[in-house]
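Researcher: I'd like a candidate sequence for this fold, 302 residues long. If you have to choose between options at a position, lean toward the conservative one.
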């Protein structure tokens, strides 16, 4: 089997059906859908039962999305794991495009898609556009990227062997204590060679709504503090040789969420955070300026 789509979910029965249906509506057919019910207390279990053998279902005690993704991976049969959050959607062409790029590039270990952002409905021009025109970049690794890339767990397609090599998603902290699990994973997977990033077409639809985890600004700041602590403890890939690139990647969201927190009146926590984050923010700005003026790796078109 080529792909395993792994969907962790917790109390999102109102959105889950659309997400599962988008995963089942793929033009490429060599895949399975695994839904991990992370101890939901709504009617998620009843909804999942309605799908019968069209999906694999795993019920577990509530322990957070990262442990749920790991649990899904443990029962997955695909050569590649494709993660999808339970409020996001796949397009009908998503796996077809991933497969075409994977075969064209001789089965790379890591492929990343990019999102279309929506709140309620996806416009017809997105759904009906030309999906046969694929643009992507082949980088030495994620740390080498020279274009802005949106970060989400739903963008990750990784070879099964490499998923375990990087240590899966985080498992070493109390349940649901931290956000930014996608960034943590990419910092540990940052030296996987090569890394493919698909820029066209959009590979998934990222839903913005009131329940998005990143809406809780204080917990985002706490999560960024934890990433900085992990960086200081040498948890992430690349050692001293790739320190600048890691710091620059951490600095981007530090800059964004710092000013967002200040704008929302979270003054004390933001000031404390600034004194921890400013070296990372500075390196992030330097890298952004460098990328603006240097020649970028050419995009491939297939």
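Model: Candidate sequence:
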């Amino acid at each position: 089997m080529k792909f395993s789509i792994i969907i962790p979910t917790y109390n999102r029965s109102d959105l889950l059906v659309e997400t599962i249906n988008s995963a089942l509506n793929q033009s490429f057919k060599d895949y399975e859908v695994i839904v991990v019910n992370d101890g939901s207390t709504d009617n998620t279990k009843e909804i999942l039962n309605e799908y019968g053998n069209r999906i694999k279902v795993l019920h577990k005690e509530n322990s957070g999305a990262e442990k749920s993704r790991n649990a899904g991976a443990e029962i997955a049969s695909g050569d590649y794991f494709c993660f999808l959050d339970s409020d996001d959607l796949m397009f009908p062409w998503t796996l077809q495009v991933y497969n075409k790029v994977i075969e064209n590039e001789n089965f790379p270990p890591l492929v990343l898609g990019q999102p279309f952002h929506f709140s309620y409905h996806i416009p017809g021009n997105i759904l009906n556009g030309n999906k046969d025109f694929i643009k992507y970049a082949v980088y030495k690794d994620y740390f080498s990227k020279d274009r802005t890339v949106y970060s989400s767990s739903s963008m990750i397609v990784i070879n099964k062997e490499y998923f375990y090599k990087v240590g899966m998603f985080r498992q070493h902290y109390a349940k649901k204590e931290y956000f930014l699990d996608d960034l943590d994973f990419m910092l540990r997977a940052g030296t996987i060679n090569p890394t493919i990033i698909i820029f066209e077409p959009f590979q998934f639809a990222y839903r913005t709504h009131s329940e998005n985890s990143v809406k809780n600004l204080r917990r985002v700041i706490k999560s960024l503090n934890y990433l900085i602590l992990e960086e200081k403890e040498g948890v992430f890939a690349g050692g001293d040789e790739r320190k600048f690139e890691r710091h620059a990647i951490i600095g981007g969201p530090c800059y964004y969420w710092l000013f967002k927190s200040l704008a929302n009146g979270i003054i004390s926590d933001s000031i404390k955070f600034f004194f921890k984050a400013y070296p990372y923010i500075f390196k992030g700005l330097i890298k952004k300026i460098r990328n603006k003026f240097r020649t970028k790796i050419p995009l491939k078109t297939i």
